[in-house]
What does this fold into?
Amino acid sequence: MIRHANGQALDWAQAVIRGYAARGWVRTIEKGYAPHPQVTRRSSDAAQVVDPQDWTLWPLKDRHTGQILPNIETRQCITAGLTPHDSTWQVTTLVFTHDRC
It folds into this structure.
């Protein structure tokens, strides 16, 4: 993950993964899931990408039983801030909103 993220975004991702593992949870990708990223801003030193997520196609499950866990949010807009690093872009911030992009 450190090749693709840093700062708040990396901290958040690592915390979520540790939390899922501690609780015995896993996210699985269902048929039909696809990201839909859209670049909304880009300059030489920063970029912003938004992606509407349908969590029903990327459900949170109990690792042992396979049962889907209740998910309050079924759709969210994820806004990612990016900065250039070496020859690629790294995600530096993530913001989740409770509606479509």
Summary: The radius of gyration is 15 Å. Strands lie at 25-27, 38-42, 47-54, 60-62, 75-85, 88-97. The chain has a mean pLDDT of 93. Residues 7-23 form the longest helix (17 residues).
